Amino acid sequence: MSSRLFVNRGLTGFKFCRNLNISWLKDKEFNYSLHNARNSCLSTWDSGINRTENLKKEGTGTTKGNPKKATGPKITLIGTDNAISVVGLEEGLKMAKRRNLKLVNLVEYDTKTQRPVYRLMTIADYNQEHLKDKKLSKSSNVKREKFLNISSRIEKHDLASKLKQVEKWLTKDFEVRVLLTGDENDMSAAEAVYKSLEEYLKGKARLLQKRTIRSEIKFYIRSLPADKVKSKSETEETRESQET
């Protein structure tokens, strides 16, 4: 004999369990079967709720195993206010597009931070820099360029290694574009680094187009023609012989 049993657990939406076949033998057997049927129905309902909640979590991406969205390689970003931050390249491109700015690559690879250096520039500043570079390249026979980024807080041994690197580039007829960053409130340390470069390269190269913009000093380094270097070395030798 079959019977339809209604079980109320006090949960919204749970009204009844269907088609529970219970043998109608004796009162004790009926009560025992009813008790087992009720527990089985409640267990099935609980497992169904748990499965639904897990599926919702997986669908909304709230589980701990959900992977984070990739933002591309990390870069050092210099903002229009000279604030320095580390962001993903994709994020930097979106930032530039959102604010109608240009994302300009200053240094391909900074050995200290092991990241490329980019700068956000307004359209006007970008066009102005582009025109200056274009005019300078026309007036110069040097075609190949190297980029150097130096901080005013650089240690002496690091500065010495960079000076040697600059000297190697110059011997291979490279033009070196330098970006020297310092403290906008006190540029004395940056000026001291500039003087060190000037003294080290004296008689070997010239530091040209020096421009100080807020906390930055930009300039070019070009090697002297071979005849000028030779004449200067001869002059120094003559002076030393006269002194002795």
Brief overview:
The protein has 244 residues and is of the alpha/beta class. It is 44% helix and 23% strand.
Protein described:
Keywords: Initiation factor, Protein biosynthesis. Belongs to the IF-3 family. One of its GO terms (cellular component) is mitochondrion. Residues 73-135 form the Translation initiation factor 3 N-terminal domain. One of its GO terms (biological process) is mitochondrial translational initiation. By secondary structure, the chain is α/β, with parallel strands linked by helices. The protein has 3 domains: 1-67; 69-128, Translation initiation factor 3 (IF-3), N-terminal domain (Ubiquitin-like (UB roll)), CATH 3.10.20; 140-244, Translation Initiation Factor IF3 (2-Layer Sandwich). The protein is 44% helix and 23% strand. It has 6 helices and 8 strands; from the N terminus they run αββαββαβαβαββα. The strands form 2 sheets. It has a 4-stranded mixed β-sheet with strand order 2-1-4-3. A 4-stranded mixed β-sheet has the order 5-6-8-7, with helices on one face. The model is unreliable at 1-28, 60-64 and 230-235 (pLDDT under 50).
Give the end-to-end Cα distance, rounded to a whole number of Å: 129 Å
As for the number of domains, it is: 3
Low-confidence segments, given as residue ranges, are: 1-28, 60-64, 230-235
How would you name the CATH homologous superfamily of the largest domain?
A: Translation initiation factor 3 (IF-3), C-terminal domain
Residue-averaged pLDDT, rounded? 73
The CATH topology assignment of the largest domain is Translation Initiation Factor IF3
CATH architecture of the largest domain: 2-Layer Sandwich
What's the level 1 CATH class of the largest domain?
Alpha Beta
Q: Given the structure, what is the number of helices?
A: 6
- Output the structural class: alpha/beta
Strand order within the widest beta sheet = 2-1-4-3
Order of helices and strands: HEEHEEHEHEHEEH
Sheet of most strands? 4 strands, mixed
Q: Level of helix content?
A: 40-55%
Overall shape: globular
GO cellular component, one term: mitochondrion
Domain Translation initiation factor 3 N-terminal: 73-135
InterPro entries: T_IF-3_C_sf, T_IF-3_N_sf, Translation_initiation_fac_3, Translation_initiation_fac_3_N
GO biological process, one term: ribosome disassembly
